[in-house]
Design goal:
mainly alpha
Length: about 475
């Protein structure tokens, strides 16, 4: 199962309930220049010396002093300051902060961070969820040196089920098939998420366990396992499995299906006083459970390069108000039928679901058809903000999509989102502005890096490290 590069950010949602896990908040630094007569050249030299010495606090002080002296931010140098912040968090932070910083650095090839993740896997005193994330990241970055640490885990009963599954997946990603027997054993076990995940891993990693997957596909009463096992077989070229998936999906199935419902029918004339009778009557409506099942089959067939589900999925999108991320569905159609996909992506832009709208918008930008994207995302953000200010998720998705779009027309909405009460939304907005060369984005990220909550400062640091190597240096003054 694919995970986003910022998967660990999702785990920070638990931080408010885990006060003991928070890193000590960095002491607020007095960053007002003490020697106002010092020249920009001297301040620049002080910054370079602090960066070379690896001192985060001194580097941040020197950088802020330089901004005061010159009136301009510098994306490249601020990115280097942020890198020191990540190192500082990795070495001195606690729990999620320490682990999140290590992940961010490990994904950038930092040997110290990778070694820390390996040690976290073996740390039996750590919380299982911390070990789980370390296991996942080591597999995602393909750390071959982690093989001796990961190899025993699938067969260790002292480990949690998610740890054992993640270890098996990471080992297979690294080319070690020794854990396949553990996954095959789960296929023969009781129904549940572990059995389903085992089938998914075996299929995605294309492990040659044909008999085990065929038996799993024949298990009665578990459609998810049936689909996962057939998909895994078909990914390995099993023509019979692909044929079964096609047969299960049907030949251009109808979206509106006949169903039998009981309706009250008035008594015949002369039967006054008799209560209405409940009689079965056929009607036609959308069977949501049927839609959910067919969409699962459609995704499996799409994964296999089969366009058969396109007409049905198009009907689902046009019907609206049905399960599934409509933007994702339209994007999948676009890979087979670009013209129809573009049409449906624009249909989804008018949806009320923030996730669907954001996904459709990002796909339109990727396909270089951004017309209407900024307007739709801006409307979704403002609508979400007006309807429920306590839930940040629906507001965050459109801002993140605009941030990644790098469309100059997004600047007004991103500036508006800088005033959002939720720090994660301000970080997304500031990141987008900084990538577009707007100094205020860098300034906001720097403020959060300096005085924000530990989890927010960590997010800001990672954003700044990324921006530092790609964003143009803003020319407008920022203090």
């Amino acid at each position: 199962m694919k995970r986003s590069r910022l998967g660990w950010v999702l785990l920070f949602a638990a931080l408010p309930a885990l006060a003991e896990d928070a890193a000590p908040k960095r002491p607020k630094l007095d960053l007002t220049p003490k020697r106002v007569d010092e020249s920009p050249a001297a301040l620049s030299k002080s910054l370079d010396e602090a960066l070379a010495a690896g001192s985060f606090e001194n580097a941040l002080y020197a950088y802020r002093s330089l901004v005061y002296a010159t009136g301009a931010e510098d994306a490249a140098r601020l990115g280097k300051v942020a890198h020191l912040a990540l190192v500082d968090d990795m070495r001195h932070g606690k729990n999620w902060i320490r682990l999140g910083a290590a992940e961010a650095l490990a994904r950038r090839g930092d040997a110290e961070a990778v070694a820390l993740l390996r040690s976290e896997v073996s740390n039996t005193a750590a919380k299982p969820v911390f070990r789980l994330r370390a296991i996942e990241v080591l597999g995602e970055i393909r750390d071959a040196a982690a093989l001796p640490v990961l190899a025993p885990l699938p067969f260790d009963p002292a480990r949690s089920a998610p740890e054992r599954l993640a270890a098996a997946d990471s080992l297979l990603a690294l080319g070690d098939v020794g854990s396949a027997s553990y996954l095959v054993g789960l296929l023969a076990g009781p129904r549940g998420p572990d059995r389903l995940r085992a089938a998914e891993i075996l299929g995605e990693r294309k492990v040659t366990v044909v008999d085990a997957l065929r038996r799993a596909a024949q298990v009665e009463g578990d459609s998810d396992l049936h689909i996962a096992a057939l998909r895994g077989l078909a990914l390995q070229g099993d023509a019979e499995a692909l044929s079964t998936l096609r047969r299960d999906f049907g030949e251009n199935p109808e979206l509106v299906l006949p169903v039998i419902e009981s309706r009250a029918v008035a008594p015949a004339p002369g039967g006054e006083g008799t209560p209405p009778e409940e009689v079965p009557q056929p009607t036609r409506k959308v069977d949501v459970r049927e839609v959910v099942l067919r969409l699962k089959l459609a995704h499996a067939l799409f994964d296999l390069g089969d366009p058969r589900p396109v007409p049905y999925v198009a009907k689902v999108i046009r019907e609206g108000s049905l399960p599934g991320n409509q933007g994702l569905l339209a994007a999948r159609i676009a890979k087979f039928d670009p013209a129809l996909g573009l049409e449906l992506l624009r249909v989804v832009l008018a949806d009320s679901d923030p996730d669907s709208v954001a996904y459709a918008a990002e796909e339109l930008v990727r396909l270089k058809h951004p017309e209407g994207v900024v307007e739709a995302l801006s409307a979704t953000y403002r609508w979400s903000k007006s309807t429920d200010t306590s839930a940040s998720g629906p507001r965050q998705r459109p801002v993140e999509a605009l941030s990644r779009s790098q469309l100059p027309a997004a600047i007004p909405l991103l500036r508006e989102a800088l005033a959002d009460p939720e720090a994660t939304i301000r970080i997304a907005a500031a990141s987008g502005l900084a990538r577009l060369g707007e100094a205020e984005g860098l300034t906001e990220l720097r403020r959060i890096l300096d005085g924000g909550q530990p989890a927010d400062a960590l997010r800001a640091a990672e954003a700044l490290v990324d921006i530092g190597s790609t964003a143009p240096t803003p020319t407008s003054p920022a203090r």
